């Protein structure tokens, strides 16, 4: 491969056309595209040998690859990136897709979490991929917190918000916790929690622990600090990630290695290891962003592509994201307007409700 990164503008017209047709053919069929196929589709008379030479040049540049000795070419990750950045034609949103997404936001009596779950299902259905929806944190003031021991290594925290919203979260408590130390920790937190959001509570508790550490035993302090890690995104993220359509990816892949990679991806997602990073991916600017293969840590193992867009609240602050994940041969021109429209619709719904 050439050391210099190729530029689409530096290609001559024939090279650009061959490259575009190879990528579009691959995205449509998932199969390598051969020179004879391209020869039949060219409007001008071009020999298969001429097209083969052009494809070899594109392969030398690192834009195409030959999966087998006598087969056609497929785009590399670099080639897909160049195509998406320079040649992708984004279509209009299909009316049927628009109606499907619109229907998920029709019920004003449903809570935001339920609506976003339905949005995820709709996205998965219309794209035939897996959908990702990162829901916003609940930022109403806290009314009450309670810890419940479930097992030696599992506990439940019950969060009651001033607006009536209740959340139950499972977490792993520090070793040595007892029911009495959990009650003591809950009492300590509740004494300072009321009227504050979770974000505000984190910084307040840090100061209180420093000032009053002697007033609670070391185990209770340990539990509070463990909880803070949850609330401040220093470990498990407080945002909720909704994953829908996992079966669409698993059924599309016949290769056992690919299946293992995809399972590994979803295991990571469902353990919520990198959810905070999922939102970080979108914060470099408004609009839809496309990540191909190893371009981001979150999906590098799966060999998949992510099309993602943030959504904002009434203050134009990014509070969540929606996206679609699928094979690198996604129909990007169709998926981009679907994700963009869904993100705008979700943002408007949340802004209207607030």
Automatic annotation (TrEMBL):
This is Heat-inducible transcription repressor HrcA. HAMAP family: HrcA. Gene3D superfamilies: 3.30.450.40, Heat-inducible transcription repressor hrca homolog, domain 3, Winged helix-like DNA-binding domain superfamily/Winged helix DNA-binding domain. Signal peptide: none annotated. Negative regulator of class I heat shock genes (grpE-dnaK-dnaJ and groELS operons). Prevents heat-shock induction of these operons. Belongs to the HrcA family. Transmembrane segments: none annotated. Pfam families: HrcA. InterPro entries: GAF-like_dom_sf, HrcA, HrcA_C, WH-like_DNA-bd_sf, WH_DNA-bd_sf, WHTH_transcript_rep_HrcA_IDD. SUPFAM superfamilies: GAF domain-like, Winged helix' DNA-binding domain. Keywords: Repressor, Stress response, Transcription, Transcription regulation. Residues 114-336 form the Heat-inducible transcription repressor HrcA C-terminal domain.
């Amino acid at each position: 491969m050439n050391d210099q990164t190729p530029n689409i503008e530096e290609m001559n017209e024939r090279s650009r056309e061959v490259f575009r047709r190879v990528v579009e053919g691959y995205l449509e069929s998932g199969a390598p595209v051969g020179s004879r196929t391209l020869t039949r589709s060219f409007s001008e008379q071009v020999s298969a040998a001429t097209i083969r030479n052009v494809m070899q040049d594109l392969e030398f540049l690192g834009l195409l690859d030959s999966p087998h000795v006598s087969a056609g070419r497929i785009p590399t990750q670099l080639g897909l990136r160049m195509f998406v950045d320079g040649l992708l034609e984004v279509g209009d949103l299909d009316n049927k897709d628009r109606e499907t997404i619109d229907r998920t936001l029709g019920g004003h009596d449903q809570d935001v979490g339920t609506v976003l779950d339905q949005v995820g299902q709709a996205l998965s259905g219309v794209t035939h991929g897996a959908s990702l929806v990162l829901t916003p944190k609940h930022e109403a003031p806290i009314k009450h917190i309670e810890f419940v021991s479930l097992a030696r290594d599992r506990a439940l925290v019950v969060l009651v918000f001033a607006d009536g919203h209740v959340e139950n979260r499972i977490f792993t408590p520090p070793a040595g916790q007892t029911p009495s130390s959990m009650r003591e920790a809950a009492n300590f937190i509740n004494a300072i929690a009321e009227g504050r959001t979770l974000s505000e509570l984190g910084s307040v508790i840090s100061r209180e622990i420093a000032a009053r550490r002697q007033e609670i035993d070391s185990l209770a302090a340990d539990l509070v600090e463990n909880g803070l890690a949850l609330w401040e995104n220093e470990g498990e993220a407080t945002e909720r990630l909704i994953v829908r359509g996992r079966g669409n990816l698993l059924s599309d892949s016949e290769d056992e290695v690919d299946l293992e990679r995809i399972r590994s991806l979803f295991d990571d997602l469902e353990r919520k290891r990198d959810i905070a990073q999922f939102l970080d991916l979108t914060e470099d600017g408004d609009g839809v962003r496309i990540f191909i293969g190893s371009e981001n840590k979150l999906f590098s193992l799966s060999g998949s592509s992510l099309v993602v867009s943030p959504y904002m609240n009434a203050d134009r602050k990014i509070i969540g994201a929606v996206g679609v994940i699928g094979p690198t041969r996604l129909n990007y021109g169709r998926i981009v307007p679907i994700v963009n429209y869904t993100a705008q619709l979700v943002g408007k719904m949340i802004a209207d409700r607030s």
